[in-house]
Write a structure and sequence with these properties.
It contains 22 helices and 16 strands. With 604 residues, the chain is of the alpha/beta class. The radius of gyration is 24 Å and the shape is globular.
Length: 604
């Protein structure tokens, strides 16, 4: 089935815009490709270093030119729940490689940090830049030219985009992404949010809060709400980089292990040494990127991907813009209600039909490009399935269920929760911004109120504790962009602003920072570009200025004359406190060279 005419038009526009950079990228990929292992070009001393730690059989295999070698890039650590399951994956992958007549080596580790740990603290200022560090660490691991394909073990917020950028930089190699899966369901998300609000109001203590948080985040696997981590997994599957049905299988289960082994074997099957050569740089094209944007909107995914998808596409020479994302949002209905867009978690989403049901519905509605290449083969239709184990313990697949198991969580396209995906671009004299409205009630899509200006989320918290915020206002949190302090997520604002909104006040947020994949019920214009430190008008707003955020019209305005705005001096803020401590001094060059949020906020 062909994609909808309007989806085709947007794709063609992206393709035409990208032609110079895409053609140059593909030429580099084709120059790097070879029908024999790159390691065959290494000198004997170089090669000996490359397999010195292997056993005799692996050394013999790698000394020749016919046995494929699989590189493993892993984000394993045993502190973070999402990445702890990866401890056992390399052995499973090596076993699968041997069974398939190949070899596998861990090529490198990449850092994996958790925004959940660093929220509200100095470490959060390293978070966005960790994506580009991960891309560079991936390149270091693959630079040895020992590999015919690579598998990527990563899950969370910046890890998957960083791995993706690294993989596309080595676009001549096939790439398969292997997820670890979500933790099992713990404390319901609405109950967790309730306890957080009670704590913020001083009605429960730290012990009660920690108990609730520990019941929510309680075991191995990703957090179960639909933030950036689980949006990553959706993207990798709908873009054809996962095996069909792989995204949301819990860790430590036989099916999870079987999918991991199958992924390793598939990666070896699509090298240049076989008949199904699928270099990731050619496989991921404009259609794949559009499919990712469609999936993001159809599921109410993380606003972080309005930054990451642009950076990922750029790594393949594809020029994606916020306008493209917003126009696709206008065409794509919201089919999933997963917290913070609903009460369910990703385990409920998977049980209701999951990715297979979602992909089938979007394909049948003409909203996805079916004619794409994937790591599984030609076309996206084989992803409209449900995975299971057969009697021999291998992965089996059956068609996705005809009906959703729970239409309050996962709806058919004909009964969508809303007609659009809910990601909008706002424009006006403050700049350009992103707003996610899929969890915001329609009556709150327009807020006009006096500005209260803060230079940190801590300052707003202090004002709240002092009782200064019991009124209508729009919080302006500026000097939070990539150049200022690394563009941290300001997720701790969610609870305070939610309390004030529940008290009946009309409140909103405008910031050049990020709000994370957990963007919720308070209207929030985020990623304001240009940022304050880059001369953005957000740095000229004063307390008491009337600001209008209109998600319906797509506008973001401070209601003063153009002459007055132009004549104002930019506020100056002392940012020296963001320059040192918790490793921030090592990222000075990143802050200096970081691009704009609407261009991917990348240092590349």
């Amino acid at each position: 089935m062909s994609a909808d005419k309007r989806i085709l038009e947007i794709t063609d526009r992206i393709r035409e815009r990208s032609k110079p950079t895409r053609e140059a990228y593909l030429e580099r990929v084709r120059q790097a490709a070879s029908n024999k292992p790159k390691r065959s070009l290494l000198g004997c001393g170089n090669l000996a270093h490359g397999f010195a730690a292997c056993g005799p059989a692996e050394k013999a295999d790698l000394a020749g030119d016919v046995v494929p070698n699989l590189g493993i890039i892993t984000s394993y650590n045993d502190m973070l729940s999402a990445h702890q399951p990866y401890e056992t994956f390399p052995q499973l992958i090596k076993q699968a490689a041997r069974e398939a007549g190949g070899v596998a080596q861990v090529a490198s580790g990449v850092p994996a940090m958790c925004d959940g740990v660093t929220q509200g603290f100095a470490g959060m200022e390293l978070s966005l830049f960790s994506r580009d560090v991960i891309a560079m660490a991936t390149a270091v691991g693959l630079s040895h030219d020992m590999f015919d394909a690579a598998v990527y073990l990563g899950v969370c917020d910046k890890i998957v985009p960083g791995l993706m950028i690294g993989a596309l930089t080595f676009g001549h190699l096939p790439a398969v992404f292997i997820p670890a899966g979500p933790m099992t369901t713990g404390l319901p998300n609405d109950e967790k949010a309730r306890i957080r609000q009670l704590y913020a109001e001083g009605k429960v203590g730290r012990a009660e809060l920690l108990e609730a948080e520990s019941k929510s985040y309680h075991g191995p696997g990703t957090c179960t709400f639909y933030g950036t981590a689980n949006s990553n997994q959706m993207l990798m599957e709908i873009m054809g980089l996962h095996l069909p049905g792989a995204s949301f299988i819990n860790p430590g289960t036989p099916l999870r292990d079987a999918l991991t082994k199958e992924a390793a074997k598939r990666a070896l099957a699509i090298t240049a040494l076989g008949n199904e050569y699928t270099p990731v740089g050619e496989m991921i094209d404009e259609r794949s990127i559009v499919n990712g944007v469609v999936g993001l909107n159809a599921t109410g995914g993380s606003t972080n991907h309005t930054i990451h998808l642009i950076a990922m596409a750029a790594a393949a020479g594809i020029a994606l813009t916020w306008r493209d994302i917003a126009e696709i949002s206008d065409l794509v209905p919201l089919l999933a209600r997963v917290y913070p867009n609903g009460l369910a978690d990703v385990n409920h989403f998977h049980a209701a039909g999951g990715m297979g049901f979602l992909i089938r519905e979007l394909l049948d509605a003409g909203l996805l490009h079916e004619d794409v290449r994937t790591v599984w083969g030609e076309g996206l239709r084989p992803y409209a399935i449900e995975p299971m184990l057969d009697d021999a313990g291998n992965v089996a697949r059956q068609p996705a269920p005809e009906k959703s198991g729970d239409e309050k969580v996962l709806a058919p396209a004909t009964q969508a929760f809303q007609p659009t995906g809910g990601i909008r671009v706002l424009t006006g004299n403050i700049g350009n911004a992103i707003i996610k409205i899929s969890a915001v009630k329609p009556e709150r899509h327009v807020v006009e109120a006096p500005a209260l200006v803060f230079d940190s989320q801590a300052a707003l918290h202090e004002a709240f504790k002092a009782g200064k915020l019991d009124r209508d206002f729009i919080a302006i949190i500026r000097f939070q962009g990539p150049k200022a302090n690394g563009m941290p997520e300001l997720h701790k604002l969610t609870t305070v602003l939610g309390i004030l909104q529940d008290r009946g006040h009309r409140v909103a947020l405008v910031t050049d920072g990020r709000m994370s994949g957990a963007s919720g019920k308070v209207p929030s214009a985020i990623h304001v570009t240009p940022e304050a430190l880059d001369g953005g008008p957000i740095g000229k707003i004063r307390d008491g200025d009337i600001v209008r955020l209109d998600a319906r019209a797509g506008t973001l305005e401070v209601l003063i004359s153009a002459a007055e705005l132009a004549g104002r001096e930019m506020d100056k803020v002392d940012l020296s406190g963001n320059q040192f401590g918790t490793g921030r001094e090592l990222f000075a060059a990143f802050r200096q060279f970081a691009g704009r949020a609407d261009q991917g906020a990348s240092v590349f």
